[in-house]
Amino acid sequence: MGWSYPDSVECMGTVRRAELMAYIISEVLEFGNSSTTLDQMDSLADAMYFIVDAFLEIGIDPEDVYKIIHRSNMAKKWPTSGARLDTSVVPPKLIKPPSWVSPKEELDMYLMDVINNKVKET
Asked: CA-CA distance, 66 to 68, in Å (whole number)?
């Protein structure tokens, strides 16, 4: 998509994180209060814009992370019955099959790879 990345991966500071959180929450609330498809599209796209910006500011490609999370979420389907929900919690939560593996290790490996590649580039 032609994103522009900083030269290094950096954890976002508290003040900037709070600013972006306020923008994202504002857009989520706008989505919750919307009554037209146009308003829903606008608020969702604005929230996505701020989220992508946050990824870029910390030096991470959001598309790569999305792919890892998407694979993990799709693996939550049970082979014989699709999705199973735990309705005892609000909102209902997907019950993970025994074969499901958390994406954290893959995300950690991805992060280490990005950090190492950025160090090599400088």
From this structure: 5
